[in-house]
Specification:
The termini are far apart. It contains 5 helices and 6 strands; from the N terminus they run βαβαβαβααββ. It has a single domain (about 5-120), classed as Rossmann fold (3-Layer(aba) Sandwich). It has helices spanning about 15-20, 40-50, 60-65, 85-95, 100-105; strands at about 5, 25, 50-55, 75, 105-110, 115-120. About 40% of the residues lie in helices and about 20% in strands. By secondary structure, the protein is α/β, with parallel strands linked by helices. A 6-stranded mixed β-sheet has the order 2-1-3-4-5-6, with helices on both faces. The model has no long low-confidence stretch (mean pLDDT about 95).
Length: about 120
C-alpha cells in the first residue's frame, strides 16, 4: 500500500485530501522538526517506506546525487499547489503510475504534463 509523506513546503491540508482518496498520508510537521534538512526527510521516507510529495526540486537532486533506488518522489512544478487545483491531476498521475511508484520512481507534474523516471536515476 502506498503511503505519502508531505513535505513542509506543502500545506497540511493535503493530508485530508489524500485521506478522502483512501490514501495514507502524513505531513512532515507531524513527524519531525519543521526545520529539518531535506536529507533527513529523505532518509525518514526511505526507512519507513513513504513516497515523498513535494514542491521542492531538491529531492530529485538527492535521488540523482546518491543513485538511490528509494524513496519514490512526486514533485509538483506548478504555481498553484492547492489540493483543489492540483489534486485531481495528482490522483490521476498516482493511479496511472502506481506500479512504478511502488518500485521506485521520480514523478514530476507540471501544468501541462507528467514525467516518470524509474530509480535509480541514470
Amino acid at each position: 500500500m502506498m503511503r505519502f509523506l508531505i513535505d513542509m513546503n506543502l500545506s497540511p491540508d493535503w493530508v485530508d485530501f489524500f485521506q478522502k482518496e483512501n490514501l495514507e498520508a502524513m505531513h512532515w510537521s507531524h513527524v519531525g522538526d519543521p526545520r529539518a534538512p531535506d536529507t533527513k526527510i529523505f532518509n525518514y521516507a526511505k526507512v519507513n517506506d513513504y513516497i515523498i510529495f513535494t514542491h521542492d526540486l531538491d529531492f530529485g537532486a538527492i535521488l540523482a546525487a546518491t543513485n538511490a533506488d528509494a524513496p519514490s518522489v512526486i514533485q509538483a512544478k506548478t504555481q498553484d499547489i492547492t489540493p483543489n487545483v492540483l489534486g485531481p491531476k495528482l490522483i490521476e498521475a498516482i493511479r496511472q503510475h502506481q506500479s512504478s511508484l511502488e518500485k521506485g520512481a521520480l514523478l514530476t507534474l507540471d501544468e501541462l504534463r507528467q514525467r516518470i523516471r524509474l530509480l535509480p536515476l541514470k
